[in-house]
């Protein structure tokens, strides 16, 4: 529940901060006074702020991931285990048709790994020390194949695009309704920049619409995990991928991954009821069943 709350608060805070900045610097008032140049102008205005943040975050993703986890990029392997790790990533990357990612290890007790990066040919794949210590090499290879699958599928870019689109729609919808409410509160008078009713309604609606937007983003996130599992099965073998997911089932406790990259980990939090709508990963048993029912090898 804590990670769900943090995820929601992070996304809502971004929209809230953008609104505050726009209001303080007069961007909202300037745009409202000009009618946003029609609906097209409103969409452009919203896209700049809604999608801009998502793609700035993506562009900085490798740097923030390294800083957030303390990951050490393997420039020159220091031992046989690191050589095997780099060689396995290279092998999977070549088979997946992508450029060689940076390979990193970060210190964490849980079994986890993640991939991030702006493009398919400029990515980062990192594994935790806990994963290397608690999984055999066949299982680790499958996890690496899963992460390479994310990169090859362009999941990071697609997730950023979807986040940007829903942010844009949230900004547009909140402002359109805000103008209608403000007009009603003012008795139909046209007030340049909108009154207090406009500002309050926009803030509240962005919170509400932001929750629904998060559900859309998380639905895609869950779907892409099945695709990445299929990629891991293709690259390392279905049995190895199933075995790796089964190994993850014995893990307890919360991930130590920073919230900004938690959705890119090999597994995520569990939830029931409505909370499932905000899960970034499907339950492990569903992922295992999907692989076992697949005809791919």
Q: Keywords, please?
A:
alpha+beta, single chain, 4-stranded mixed β-sheet
Order of helices and strands: HHHHEHEEEHHHHHH
Residue runs with pLDDT of under 50 for 5 or more positions: 1-8, 34-39
N-to-C terminal Cα separation, in Å?
36 Å
The neighbouring-strand order within the major sheet is: 1-2-4-3
Coarse structural class: alpha+beta
Got a strand count?
4
The coarse silhouette is: elongated
Radius of gyration: 22 Å
- How many domains? The number is 1
Q: Strand fraction band?
A: 5-15%
Mean pLDDT: 81
Helix content: 55-70%
What count of helical segments does DSSP give? 11
How is the biggest beta sheet arranged?
Answer: 4 strands, mixed
Characterization of the model:
This protein has a 4-stranded mixed beta sheet with strand order 1-2-4-3, with helices on both faces. A hairpin with a 2-residue loop joins β3 and β4. α7 (137-152) crosses α9. It is elongated, with a radius of gyration of 22 Å. It contains 11 helices and 4 strands. The chain has helices at 2-24, 27-33, 38-59, 61-69, 80-96, 129-134, 137-152, 155-185, 196-236, 238-248, 284-292, and strands at 72-73, 102-106, 113-119, 122-128. The longest helix has 41 residues, at 196-236. By secondary structure, the chain is α+β, with helices and mostly antiparallel strands. 65% of the residues lie in helices and 7% in strands. The protein has one domain.
């Amino acid at each position: 529940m804590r990670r769900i709350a943090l995820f929601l608060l992070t996304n809502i805070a971004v929209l809230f901060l953008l609104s505050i900045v726009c209001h303080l610097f007069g961007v909202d008032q300037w745009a409202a006074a000009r009618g946003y140049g029609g609906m097209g102008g409103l969409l452009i205005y919203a896209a700049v702020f809604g999608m801009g943040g998502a793609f700035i975050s993506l562009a900085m993703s490798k740097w923030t991931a390294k800083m957030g986890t303390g990951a050490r990029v393997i420039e020159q392997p220091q031992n046989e285990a690191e050589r095997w790790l780099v060689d396995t990533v290279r092998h999977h990357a070549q088979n997946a048709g992508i450029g060689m990612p940076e390979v990193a290890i970060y210190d964490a007790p849980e079994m986890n790994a993640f991939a991030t990066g702006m493009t398919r040919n400029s990515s980062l794949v990192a594994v935790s020390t806990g994963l290397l210590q608690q999984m055999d090499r066949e299982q680790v290879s499958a996890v690496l194949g899963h992460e390479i699958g994310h990169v090859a599928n362009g999941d990071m870019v697609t997730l950023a695009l979807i986040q940007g689109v829903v942010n844009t729609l949230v900004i547009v919808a909140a402002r359109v309704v805000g103008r209608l409410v403000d007009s009603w509160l003012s008795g139909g008078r046209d007030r340049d920049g909108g009154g207090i009713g406009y500002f309050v309604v926009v803030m509240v609606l962005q919170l509400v619409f932001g929750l629904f937007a998060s559900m859309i983003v998380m639905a895609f996130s869950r779907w892409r995990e099945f695709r990445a599992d299929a990629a891991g099965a293709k690259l390392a073998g279905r049995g190895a991928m199933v075995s790796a997911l089964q190994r993850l089932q014995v893990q307890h406790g919360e991930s130590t991954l920073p919230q900004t990259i938690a959705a890119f980990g090999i597994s995520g939090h569990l939830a029931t009821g409505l909370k499932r709508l905000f899960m970034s990963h499907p339950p492990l048993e569903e992922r295992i069943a999907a692989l076992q029912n697949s005809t791919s090898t």
